[in-house]
Amino acid sequence: GIGVAIFLIGNSLSRGFHIESFNDFALNFGVYQLYSFVLGFSNMYYFDYLNKRKWTNSESIKRISIGIFGSIVITIVGMFLLRAFTSVYLQGNTFVEYIESENYKNYTFGVWITLTIVIVFHAIYYYKKNQENKVKESQIVAKNQTAKFESLKNQLDPHFLFNSLNVLTSLIGENPKQAEKFTTKLSKVYRYVLEQKDKDLIPLEEELKFAKSYMELLKMRFEDGINFNIPETVSNSELKIVPLSLQLLLENAVKHNVITSNNPLEIRIYEKNGCLVVENNINLKTSLEKSTKV
Questions:
Q1: pLDDT of 19-46, one tens digit each?
Q2: How large is the C-alpha radius of gyration of the chain?
Q3: What is the DSSP letter of 227?
Q4: What digits encode the pLDDT tens for the residues 104-118?
Q5: b (16+ CB within 10 A) / e for 205-221
Q6: What is the distance between the alpha carbons of residues 136 and 143, in angstroms, rounded to a whole number?
Q7: DSSP code at position 57
Q8: In whole angstroms, what is the distance from residue 95 CA to residue 141 CA?
């Protein structure tokens, strides 16, 4: 395709498509195809060689300069040899006669065509490379976030069970009957945990219902020491959240604050400016119980 295009351009500029015979046309067409084949493949091989070398981002100008300069040298040398071949073997001239008749103008068309193709190749190459880099960067970010996300999910499930058993242990000593009710309630709540733990995201309304059930568990232990306000619905039913993430925040609020009937822990969950807010008053403990560091 490139050879045909060069044949048409070359003849329109030099001969105006003046063809004396079919043999003249065939010879002229064949010579152009020979030039296109030799110069095209030699430049493509050189371009491929440059691509295989390691280039840093700061060497882009150097890479382009070497590519263009090398292509010009390859084109001039290639044209010199091809013109020598056609002059000596096809036109019957001697090599000395060929050298004496050579002029730099004979190379301008070939160099111009080569430069045009090389510049287009470089533009396509760097555009494609830039797009590939963007894809790689986005894949790296996505994999990194996915790894963090999976790590969090793997910690939330055992974290919930661990802390719920701690609450149950405390209740057994303080109020055995309440501990029995807590166990029944916990079994229903943990069923939700088992159903949702393998999901990446769940509807926010479902997580809010679970958060309310979890707070009811804590209310059984602390009674008047905890008050909470959790909405039944949200502004958009399509909103989603990581399973058990609210429980982690609620449990931390309980763990870090002193809880008494005189100074109850007030927990409130609400929407504000497109965000979900988990809010509580602060009455920090002087010493903390053993933490899982989640």
A1: 555 555 565 556 666 667 677 777 777 7
A2: 39
A3: E
A4: 777 776 677 777 777
A5: bbbbebbbbbbebbebb
A6: 10
A7: G
A8: 63
pLDDT band at 7 (very low <50, low <70, confident <90, very high): very low
Average pLDDT of span 39-62: 76
Contact 201, 150 (CB under 8 A): no
Q: How many CB atoms lie within 10 A of CB 159?
A: 18
Q: Are 235 and 271 in contact (CB under 8 A)?
A: yes
Separation CA 145–CA 152 (nearest Å): 11
Distance of alpha carbon 265 from alpha carbon 283, whole angstroms: 8
- What whole-number distance in Å separates Cα of residue 94 and Cα of residue 222? 109
Task: Give the CA distances from residue 240 to residues 31, 160, 234, 263, in Å, rounded to whole numbers and listed in that order.
Answer: 68, 20, 11, 34
Tokens of 27: 């010879």
DSSP assignment of 238-249 equals: T-EE-TTHHHHH
10 Å CB burial of residue 139 (0-12, 13-18, 19+) is: exposed
Spatial contact of 7 and 33, defined as CB atoms under 8 Å apart: yes
Cα–Cα distance for residue pair 89/83, rounded to 1 Å: 10
Residue 160: name the closest of 184, 196, 127 by CA.
196
Our CA angle for 129, 133, 134, nearest 5°, is 120
